[in-house]
Amino acid sequence: MLDKNGIAKRIAKEVKNGMYVNLGIGIPTLVANYIPDGIDVVLQSENGILGMGPFPFEGEEDADLINAGKQTVTLLNGASIFDSAMSFGMIRAQKVNLTILGAMEVSEYGDIANWKIPGKMVKGMGGAMDLVASAKNIIVAMQHVNKAGESKLLPKCDLPLTGIRCVKKIVTELAVLDVLPTGGFRLLERAPGVSVEQIKNATAGRLIVEGEIPEMVI
Asked: Could you give the 3-state DSSP secondary structure of residue 102?
């Protein structure tokens, strides 16, 4: 199985040269540390950064430079800082090529729930709903099961939805999966040491397995 850094490292392989990429809170923020050499991308943070770099080394943090998750970050040469209105103008105008988000649940039709658990305190929905409504491509970084061992890849989301039919791909500690437009999670890769049977047992939604499933290369 992969840890959180392993999930982020695998997702970084989906980032292509020339992309503008938004990184959501949680595991997605780690992707900035694993952008492959030779790939020129611009990372956008919804609180108002364009040209975000990896996390700073210990002792080199600048408390005034933070991402949407309030973690200290670095800036690359040529980076820009601006207000939230301009940031969300970029998002709503579909200037972002790829959005990488965390999730609490994803349905087999690509619905995503990632902002609220009923009965628990929540500060607000943040920018998630703008991102899922406007992004051209959404990849979810998440744990396959919750703390109780229950699947988070479901036939239908139980939690309040953030967006409908918007998730294109999911990377978990167990697998890489495509979400098909007709419904279902198509298994593309399995994590090192993980069997197809383990993935089947951890997936409540419809899982589509076609042929031999390769082990992912990290």
From this structure: strand
Nearest C-alpha neighbor of 175 from the set 185, 161, 165, 184: 185
Burial 55-68 (b: 16+ CB within 10 A, else e): beeeeeeeeebebb
> Whose structure tokens read 């699947």?
151
Hey, what amino acid is at 207? L
Q: How far apart are CA 161 and CA 133, in angstroms?
A: 12
Residue 46 is a catalytic residue = yes
Give domain status of residue 213, yes or no.
Answer: no
For residue 157, give its domain range.
4-208
Cβ(132)–Cβ(53) below 8 Å: no
CATH number of the CATH domain containing 174: 3.40.1080.10
Q: How many domains does the chain have?
A: 1
Using a cut of 0.85, tell me whether the model's pTM lies above it.
Answer: yes
Q: Identify the DSSP state of 183.
A: S
Among candidate residues 14, 46, 108, 173, the one labeled active-site is 46
- Reported as a single tens digit per residue, the pLDDT across 50-92 is 999 989 999 999 999 998 888 999 999 999 999 989 999 999 9
Domain-located, residue 217: no
Give how far Cα 38 sits from Cα of 10, 14, 16, 18, 41, Å: 17, 14, 10, 11, 10
